[in-house]
Amino acid sequence: MARATAAAAIPAAIHAACRDLPRRAAPAVGATAGQPKPSMPSSSPSIPPPTVPLAPPPPVWYTEGRLRKVQPYPYVYTSRMKGRWLGRTLMDVFATEFLDQTADVYADKIDRGFITLNGSRARPDHVLGPNDVLRHALHRHEPPILATPPTLLYADAQLVVVDKPPSVPVHPSGRYHFQTLTALLAAPPLALGELYPVNRIDRLTSGIVLLARTPRAAARMGAAMAARRLAKTYLAVVRGRFPDSATMAAPLVCAAPIACVEFKMGLNHVDAANGKPCETHFVKLADGWLPAASAEHSLPGSAKTSVTGSADDARELVSLVLCRPVTGRTHQIRVHLQHLGHPIANDPLYATSPWG
């Protein structure tokens, strides 16, 4: 239950914030200047791999009830060499780094040529080098998202402002490629073409997202955000009674450093010794109750109160909190609220019992 908010004058404020920043040339999209040419593995068999187009076909979306789905499609994942893969075998990397399939499945895909090294078949025991490129061809199935479309709030030659619904990632990552905000905006009916996100909000968060029309505009707006000429505000429904002392005049400031616990899952936590500096300001706006249907699914340790004394009528005490991040660490607001003992009420990661 988190939402990014913005004032009605966002476009004018953004252009004003960017106006006085120094201009710089935008980087070429997709540039690979200075990148060494991938080497061919000496142990690659000569039989060519199956032909799978590197570019996926256009998406075919459809709705079922409140959900938007996309038909499965052929897709090729491409990964350039990472430092931790050097000196390891092809099979070892897939069996330990990509955990969505078993080692037996990956062995079969390597044998059949659906996993390749530098465009050619390779043996499972091939030792990876510094310039290798791995490709994995498969039939991709994306998770469903809410069928609610993004709402276009503003558009000009440099900027697009939309209201993103929850469940939708801003850009392709992980399990999502077409089920993303940028893909939905590029497709009819809006057909806005290629866009460059200026700010990003979590997949489960709804609210304002700024997207530039060109790389140059994205660089200038990004610089304005880095210089804190643009401020972000979120609303969150949190568990428990948030402190009444957190007011507009004197917000509650959390400056607990945050570190990553698990990169693959994107989990973060407060770590005073190893975390990066973070700061979030919180203001309580109101107290309330979650309805009984929501309270039934509350996790262990949640603050429940029965109004009538019946367990069936149990409701959970919550607060509506305004959140203003000063820094922009991953999951910063969610982690800071969990650290304060008031996680977002329906947060699937940080409101679970292992986190408090």
UniProtKB/TrEMBL annotation:
Q: Which InterPro entries match?
A: PsdUridine_synth_cat_dom_sf, PsdUridine_synth_RluA-like_CS, PsdUridine_synth_RsuA/RluA, RluA_PseudoU_synthase
Among the Pfam families in the record, one is PseudoU_synth_2
Q: Which domain of life is it from?
A: Eukaryota
Task: Please give one Gene Ontology molecular function term for this protein.
Answer: pseudouridine synthase activity
Q: Where is the Pseudouridine synthase RsuA/RluA-like domain?
A: 158-339
Q: Give the span(s) annotated as Disordered.
A: 27-51
Which PROSITE patterns does this entry report, sorted A to Z? PSI_RLU (PS01129)
Q: Name one GO biological process term.
A: enzyme-directed rRNA pseudouridine synthesis
What is the designated name of this protein?
Pseudouridine synthase RsuA/RluA-like domain-containing protein
* Low complexity: compositionally biased ranges: 36-45
